[in-house]
Amino acid sequence: MQRLSALLPGYPAAAHPRHNAIIGSSQAPYFNTLAKECGLATNFHNITHPSLPNYIAATSGLSYSALHNFLPDCSPKAGCWDEGEGGHYAKGEHCATNTSDVSCHIATLVISPSTKAGARSGTRFNHYSLLGTAEQLLRLSKLGQAASSPTMTKAFNL
Question: Which residue from 89, 87, 64 is spatially nearest to 74, judged by alpha carbons?
């Protein structure tokens, strides 16, 4: 259980910081120190915008189309805010197919005593990967989309 609890702290607490705005930034010295001393998933992407469906995906494995049931009742017109580029998002944006939106690419640390300092992985991970990793570490059956998503265990020696 220690390995699992070490995997998660940097994750939702960081509230989806854009990768390019955090990694290497002088404005995020602690995060960058951790990135050097722990693991960094360099190609981790949101499933969609805004945040809530990503959290649902990370805990349920629900498909992208099912996540639309969890979109909050707001739109950019109403002035909603998300972590995306400039803070605004296209409601229900599908980050899995949108490779040009930098707000889909989020900085993700892997903090674990078994992960070599400075470990990096360019494998495309997402919230389903996070769920699958937790399920694999706990020896549980994989839910929904987590069953077909790459886990982070091998890349980060978890």
Answer: 89
